């Protein structure tokens, strides 16, 4: 009887706590929409988020019990220390906008010409502010410490994450979570990205081929950089099909090929640029080796000189398997199992990947409703996604701190 009594009592206590969390989250719904609209109207580009950073810092201070630190000039970390000792968890939101002229038709559209939140970072920031407000009201119940990481410059390499990491302000954090809104998934649905590689790395190259100009009727007098560049483009198409393990995601896309001005002139040079995506460190290294080898040998065979700038961008996000399991269970409890789904790996890249240098990480997605893709001028994330985002973040943080 005693065992049964305490089991029922514990079950009722858990239901009561869960109900209280839902009530707390519901109470910030209006705030989160208001914050999102303000941020959307006042976007700032990467490394220039001065007003955004001040706005976020002021809002965190207004909650009354959150310590605010500035790990970089335009980034903010809010630290909430629970009344009880325990683990330390971080949740990251990025704040920067894009150099894109908005075409959404929103009543709260960007007031800054040529700049807009076309990737949804206003949503990320508003949701994390909502999460911070909810948890700040639960300080006496918290077992551990929460770091609310508002990061600058995700959109522009080398990214803001590295600056925050190098500041040392995340020392002692045991795990870091993050989320990104994605269109054409039901607003407020929560997508659980896979364990292991959850995105691609983002590398590429800038190539200048130096040939020798000539009259179009006398090609034997010149070294044609267009032919040389064309051979390179075609040979690069064999890297994925003949060097990468079948079934492993990898992409080589030459997006720039510029050369010449007249039909009867063989130009002196050609300029090429490419985007390269991989998901494993081994294939990332292989890609660079093959690209360098192909460019070098083709140019040599054609008698052309070249200058190659091979750029290593953000690495692939590596999701921790245990954190994924915890996050999925927490999200299902927060928003209902029907609103949670297993999401495929992202082909895009994110500097959230760098936080794995600090602690195990997990990155998920939040559906933002139907519409154009991220980075499109018409990208229009739905406000209705915000509340479920906050619910999931709050529950994930609490479950992690409680050791679930």
TrEMBL record:
It holds the Pfam family M20_dimer. InterPro entries: Amidohydrolase, Bact_exopeptidase_dim_dom, Peptidase_M20, Peptidase_M20_dimer. Residues 1-20 form the signal peptide. Residues 202-299 form the Peptidase M20 dimerisation domain. The keyword Hydrolase applies. It comes from the Bacteria. Keywords: Hydrolase, Signal. NCBIfam families: amidohydrolases (TIGR01891). This is N-acyl-L-amino acid amidohydrolase. It comes from Akkermansia biwaensis. The lineage of its organism: Bacteria, Pseudomonadati, Verrucomicrobiota, Verrucomicrobiia, Verrucomicrobiales.
């Amino acid at each position: 009887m005693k065992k049964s009594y305490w089991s029922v009592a514990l079950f009722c206590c858990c239901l009561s706590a869960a109900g209280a969390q839902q009530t707390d989250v519901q109470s910030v719904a209006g705030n989160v929409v208001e914050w999102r609209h303000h941020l959307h109207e006042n976007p700032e580009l990467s490394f220039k988020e001065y007003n955004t950073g001040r706005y976020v810092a002021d809002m965190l201070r207004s909650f009354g019990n959150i310590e605010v630190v500035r790990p970089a000039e335009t980034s903010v970390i809010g630290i909430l220390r629970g009344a009880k000792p325990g683990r330390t968890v971080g949740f990251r939101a990025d704040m920067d906008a894009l150099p894109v002229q908005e075409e959404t038709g929103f009543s709260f559209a960007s007031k800054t010409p040529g700049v807009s939140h076309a990737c949804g970072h206003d949503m990320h920031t508003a949701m994390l502010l909502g999460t911070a407000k909810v948890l700040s009201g639960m300080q006496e119940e918290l077992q551990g410490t929460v770091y609310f990481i508002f990061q600058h410059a995700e959109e522009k390499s080398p990214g803001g994450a590295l600056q925050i990491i190098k500041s040392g302000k995340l020392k002692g954090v045991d795990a870091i979570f993050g989320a990104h809104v994605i269109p054409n998934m039901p607003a407020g649905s929560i997508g659980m990205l896979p364990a292991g590689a959850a995105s691609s790395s983002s590398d590429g190259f800038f190539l200048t081929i130096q040939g020798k100009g000539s009259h179009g009727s006398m090609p034997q007098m010149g070294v044609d950089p267009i032919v040389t560049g064309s051979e390179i483009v075609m040979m690069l198409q064999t890297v994925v099909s003949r060097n990468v393990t079948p079934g492993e995601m990898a992409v080589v896309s030459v997006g720039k090929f510029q050369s010449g001005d007249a039909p009867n002139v063989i130009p002196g040079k050609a300029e090429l640029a490419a985007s390269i995506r991989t998901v494993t460190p081994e294939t990332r290294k292989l890609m660079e080796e093959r690209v360098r080898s192909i460019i070098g040998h083709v140019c040599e065979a054609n008698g052309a000189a070249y200058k190659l700038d091979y750029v290593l961008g953000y690495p692939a996000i590596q999701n921790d398997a245990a954190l994924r399991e915890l996050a999925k269970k927490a999200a299902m409890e927060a928003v209902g199992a029907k609103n949670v789904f297993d999401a495929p790996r992202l082909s895009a890249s994110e500097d959230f990947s760098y936080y794995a240098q600090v602690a195990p990480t997990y990155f998920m997605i939040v559906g933002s409703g139907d519409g154009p893709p991220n980075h499109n001028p018409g990208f229009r994330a739905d406000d209705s996604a915000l509340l479920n985002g906050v619910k999931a973040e709050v529950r994930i943080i609490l479950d992690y701190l409680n050791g679930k």
